[in-house]
Sequence to fold (162 residues):
Amino acid sequence: MKLSEGVEWGLHCGVLLGFVGPDASLPTARLAEYHGVPGAYLAKHLQAMSRAGILESVQGPGGGYRLARPAADITVLEVVEAIDGRESAFQCAEIRRRGPSARPAREYRVPCSIHSLMNRADEAWREELRRVSLADLMGQVVAGASPKGLEQGARWMQEVLK
Fold:
């Protein structure tokens, strides 16, 4: 399975906006600048997160995006599904019903074993992502980041939020 790079961007933006707090926002251009990604492409993902109720758009001169709910109430799965959709990565084409051993559909009394396995695997990874919130990620980012990087990021944030 391959998730789009937009998922990574959306998660990083969600984490950063979690540090901004509920009363401030960051414009798309600044979020793109911070992460070194193209603004126009990032805007599409931020809009998808906004439509999903993860972010809210703030209008006006100090506008941009902020989290629509507390970071602890937003799961990683919500971000993944907002950007990449809810569809399973595996799409069964029932190829077991083709070829030299093909039989009429009525003779296949049990679901395809491969399809069943892939459904269980899909639900397992979704459950794991459902367990982790943006607040959890924020703590992990701080714990794993370079102290100098955190300091530079904090200075950047202070300048941008002035």
Notes: Residues 5-86+133-160 form a domain with the Arc Repressor Mutant, subunit A fold (CATH 1.10.10.10). Strands lie at 55-58, 64-67. The two ends are 42 Å apart (CA to CA). The chain is about 55% helix and 5% strand.
